[in-house]
């Protein structure tokens, strides 16, 4: 858990540096901004993937060899940290997270779950282990279709998403909750917050907060207490759902923190972080560039993570 | 001046007493001279330089040169402008003493000293789409003997050796030096600390030395897959990288130098410390450039940083290091054991013990 905190802290520091570089004398330093963006990317990957401790931090890491991308391999066993409520500090870090609208009360503090952005996302480990929000977003769009199928058997899974689904962090009124596949009547045309079709399902397993989907079902039953039997069922579903959920959570968590930066950086983002060495990002990029291009300067729920993660590209593009 | 100034002295009879500097994106060639006499006794000017009315002059005298306090003057003689879009990080004079190169983040240009309005671009790593940028050039230097060969280092910790005879645009390297990353040392800051801040050919031309944030490495030009020697400059900072990132110290660009015989290498550190490594005996020493222990003729005492556990007397603990006192620039006389060390706004010159 502390790695997430560290990653979060590093993300904040990095964004601050990028912002300051725009106003300092002498012009933007390409080299420094490039390095800051690399740190930002590393921190974000850790943040999203919630890997085994020590993966990204220097230390006696047991298995640091595993790079953040571990496609196709379910988390062997989630770290012990899963299923535990994140420390309060994490909550405090996200003051702007919006209050949840009505939603069946969930056992664990819902907001606390917010601080654990990628726990669920990475819970599945596999697809999102790539850890890139872009892929998450793209995958989320692809998932819209199969959502209907997913709805039926969502079960716990659905419950886990419930609270989150009801609320749209972008402020769009909840709607279309039980309409599978419906993008919902989000008033903002460019808002890509996902409706949560499975919201009418019973709440998530008790020991796990709504956000902690990771705990709820990821690979094999972490400490939490979700019905073990449902784990295998959850996992495949979770994969497809995790991504958008994770994306949402990530957005939500980042938004409050970087609203200022977002407004400053404004225009469309893409860039180095998108075109990371992994080849698999191409399709994500392709899908992305369309919507991104369509909404330059929009400050909304859509891809705030991208925005704040990629602000350096503005600096580069600014040359 | 807030712009970064990168200076090199040209030590050659043809261009003696000339040095050149860059201000961000312009290169200037300066003539540096010393003056220790000045003329006195002009007829048409008085001592303060004001013109005298010729009508008031009744006698004539011959001006004479009188000694004065030594003064160093620098006069710009050439300005090489408008060839760089990004910040210049290196300039290197070629062994032919007719050309030199200037390197910025993405391009390297070749100049002739006599031609200020034209340069040749010899390296260009700017991607078509800037968003695909993954590395920048951090330092470049010509080979000391082969005027067609140069190296440049990157922010990814790699060095490329190029031969200008191969093609006009040296985008294809002749040699590529890179050490595989040690996975056990992976951290958020791995990329930053592997960025090379300085690259220097040995005087012999057989080796290159690179400086990254925590180490100095010596490479044999004939072996590209790893350095032949690695020296830890201040490994105790490895656990402090996050704080150093926060206070921007991790972006400090330290230089490194060879001694005249290529047997000792030197580089700077924090707390006004600088380090020397003897390549033959494998011994190293940490010295401090400070006013207290730099009375003339005083012998520098080796310093030691305590990394944990009990701190001995005279040792300094890592947390007491002053990170605002950094030695980024050092120089070693080409043939004597005399070094120059720049500590913030003081320049220290040390020499070997004279027995």
From TrEMBL, chain A:
Biased segments, Polar residues type: 257-270
Source species of the chain: Panthera pardus
Family: Belongs to the IER family.
A matching Pfam family: IER
Basic and acidic residues: bias regions: 138-150, 189-199
Region (Disordered) location: 60-300
Biased composition (Low complexity): 72-83
UniProt biased composition (Gly residues): 216-227
Protein name, per record: Immediate early response gene 5 protein
UniProt-listed InterPro entries: IER
Gene: IER5
Highest taxon listed in the record's lineage: Eukaryota
From TrEMBL, chain B:
Alphabetic keyword roster: Repeat, WD repeat
SMART domains the record matches: WD40
Top-rank taxon: Eukaryota
Transmembrane segment boundaries: none
GO MF entry, a single one: protein phosphatase regulator activity
SUPFAM superfamilies referenced in this protein's UniProt entry, alphabetically: WD40 repeat-like (SSF50978)
GO cellular component term of the entry, any: protein phosphatase type 2A complex
Similarity comment: family membership: Belongs to the phosphatase 2A regulatory subunit B family.
Name assigned to this protein: Serine/threonine-protein phosphatase 2A 55 kDa regulatory subunit B
């Amino acid at each position: 858990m502390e790695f997430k905190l560290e990653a979060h802290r590093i993300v904040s520091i990095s964004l601050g540096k990028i912002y300051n570089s725009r106003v300092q004398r002498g012009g933007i330093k390409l080299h420094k901004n490039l390095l800051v963006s690399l740190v930002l990317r590393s921190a974000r990957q850790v943040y999203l993937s919630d890997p085994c401790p020590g993966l990204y931090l220097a230390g006696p890491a047991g298995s640091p060899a595993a790079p953040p991308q571990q496609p196709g391999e379910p988390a062997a066993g989630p770290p012990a940290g899963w299923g535990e409520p994140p420390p309060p500090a994490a909550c405090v870090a996200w003051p702007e997270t919006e209050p949840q609208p009505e939603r069946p009360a969930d056992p664990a503090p819902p907001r606390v779950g917010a601080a654990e952005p990628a726990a669920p996302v990475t819970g599945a480990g596999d697809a999102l282990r790539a850890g890139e929000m872009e892929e998450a977003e793209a995958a989320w769009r692809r998932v819209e279709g199969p959502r209907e199928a997913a709805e039926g058997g969502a079960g716990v899974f659905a419950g886990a998403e419930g609270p989150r689904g009801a609320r749209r962090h972008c402020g769009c009124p909840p709607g279309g909750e039980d309409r599978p596949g419906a993008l919902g009547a989000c008033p903002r045309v460019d808002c890509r917050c996902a409706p949560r079709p499975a919201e009418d399902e019973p709440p998530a397993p008790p020991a796990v907060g709504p956000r902690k989907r990771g705990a709820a079902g990821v690979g094999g039953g972490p400490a939490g207490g979700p019905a073990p039997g449902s784990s295998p069922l959850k996992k495949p579903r979770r994969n497809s759902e995790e991504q958008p959920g994770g994306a949402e959570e990530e957005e939500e968590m980042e938004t409050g923190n970087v609203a200022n930066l977002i407004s400053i950086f404004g225009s469309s983002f893409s860039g180095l972080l998108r075109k990371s060495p992994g080849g698999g990002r191409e399709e994500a990029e392709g899908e992305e560039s369309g919507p991104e291009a369509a909404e330059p300067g929009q400050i909304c729920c859509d891809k705030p993570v991208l925005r704040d993660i990629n602000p350096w590209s503005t600096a580069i593009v600014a040359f | 001046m807030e712009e970064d100034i990168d200076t090199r002295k040209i030590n050659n009879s043809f261009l003696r007493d000339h040095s050149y500097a860059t201000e961000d994106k312009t290169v200037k060639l300066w003539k540096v001279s010393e003056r220790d006499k000045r003329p006195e006794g002009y007829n048409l000017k008085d001592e303060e330089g004001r013109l005298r009315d010729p009508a008031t002059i009744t006698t004539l005298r011959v001006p004479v040169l009188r000694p004065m306090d030594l003064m160093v003057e620098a006069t710009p003689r050439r300005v090489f402008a408008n060839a760089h879009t990004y910040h210049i990080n290196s300039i290197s004079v070629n062994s032919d003493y007719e050309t030199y190169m200037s390197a910025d983040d993405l391009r390297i240009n070749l100049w002739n000293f006599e031609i200020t309005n034209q340069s040749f671009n010899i390296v260009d790593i700017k991607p078509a789409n800037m968003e695909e940028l993954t590395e920048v050039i951090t330092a470049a230097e010509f080979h000391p003997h082969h005027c067609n060969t140069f190296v440049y280092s990157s922010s990814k910790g790699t060095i490329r050796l190029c031969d200008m005879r191969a093609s006009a645009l040296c985008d294809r390297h002749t040699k590529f030096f890179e050490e595989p990353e040690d996975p056990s040392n992976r951290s958020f800051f791995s990329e930053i600390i592997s960025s090379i801040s300085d690259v220097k050919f040995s005087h012999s031309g057989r080796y290159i030395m690179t400086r990254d944030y925590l180490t100095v490495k010596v490479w044999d030009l004939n072996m590209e897959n790893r350095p032949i020697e690695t020296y830890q400059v201040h490994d105790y900072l490895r656990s402090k990288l996050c704080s150093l990132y926060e206070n921007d110290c991790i972006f400090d660009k330290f230089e490194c130098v060879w001694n005249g015989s290529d047997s000792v290498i030197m580089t700077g550190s924090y707390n006004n410390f600088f380090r020397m490594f003897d390549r033959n005996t494998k011994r190293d020493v940490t010295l401090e450039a400070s006013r207290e222990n730099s009375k003339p003729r005083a012998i520098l005492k080796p310093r030691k940083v305590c990394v944990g556990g009990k701190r001995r007397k005279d040792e300094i603990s890592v947390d007491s290091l002053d990170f605002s006192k950094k030695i980024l620039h050092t120089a070693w006389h080409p043939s004597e054991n005399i070094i120059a060390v720049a500590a913030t706004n003081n320049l220290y010159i040390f020499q070997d013990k004279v027995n």
